[in-house]
Design goal:
259 residues, alpha+beta, four-stranded antiparallel beta sheet
């Protein structure tokens, strides 16, 4: 199955085939004093016990995150970060952990969906569902969340995150395809994301979660206008330059006076 195999009441965890993900989220009620940024932490964790093994050799403890864990953590972060209200600076931590792996199920898209679902069903002010999918193409036909065997013969490897309204994040590679083919792949991905998002909305209705009341940090409108008036037109002009070195010099010249 390429979707969420779920019935109500649900078993703990996000389950697709033999793949089981545990997505947890926690956050502070209020931002720390004088905090002027949004401290969102996203971690994807997979250990060898997920495939029924333990590390061999003298050292039994698994140490730092692998390259795959770091990359999927970033793919989780990118589509969910813009969804938080502007001015929300309270700490939020999202952890997606693989409890059981399945060789026939790709993980990246499901990890994004699991993280989005955990946030959407929490009392943290996360306003809309975010889902992710992985798209392959075999013999000219798009495949949703392909298995590892299918990915080996696919000429597209595309991971897309988004909401029911729009695409938020695209990550992937392809074997020399046209712009039209890429747009078709993105549209196919977004159509699937809409289905996952609709499932999340139905799930939230059964949860009956009340979002916490928050106070957002308001930006200084006067300072924002001064900075925009000073640098905006300079950056527009600099970015129109086709020479990479000259563009970099012009951008620095526009920004350095602000520092």
């Amino acid at each position: 199955s390429s979707g969420i195999n779920a019935e109500w009441p649900l078993r703990p965890g996000y389950r697709v085939g033999n793949l089981v993900l545990l997505a947890t989220v926690c956050g502070l009620d209020e931002p720390k004093e004088n905090q002027d940024f949004f401290p969102l932490s996203c971690d994807y964790i997979e250990k060898m016990y997920a495939v029924g093994r333990v590390p061999s050799g003298y050292i039994k403890r698994e140490s730092k995150p692998s390259e795959k864990e770091v990359l999927i953590s970033r793919m989780i972060d990118r589509p969910i970060r813009p969804m938080f209200p502007e001015g929300y600076f309270a700490d939020v931590q999202v952890i997606v952990q693989v409890l059981s792996a399945d060789k026939e199920v790709s993980i990246a898209g499901h990890a994004i969906t699991a993280a989005g679902l955990s946030l959407y069903c929490s009392n943290i002010p996360f306003p809309k569902p975010v889902s992710g999918v992985q798209i392959g193409r075999i013999d000219g036909k798009f495949v949703l969340n392909p298995s590892l065997k299918e990915m080996a013969i696919s000429d597209i490897d595309l991971i897309v995150g988004g909401t029911e309204d729009s695409v938020v994040m695209i990550e992937g590679e392809a074997n020399e395809i046209s712009n039209e083919e890429l747009l078709e792949a993105i549209k196919f991905a977004h159509d699937s994301i809409k289905q996952f998002s609709q499932f999340q909305c139905k799930f939230l209705q059964k949860m009956r979660v009340e979002k916490r009341k928050i106070s957002l940090v308001q930006k200084d409108a006067n300072l924002f206008k001064q900075v925009k008036d000073f640098v905006y037109q300079k950056m527009v002009t600099a970015n129109k330059c086709s020479d990479k070195k000259e563009k970099s010099t012009d951008c620095d010249s526009a920004l350095i006076p602000l520092l």
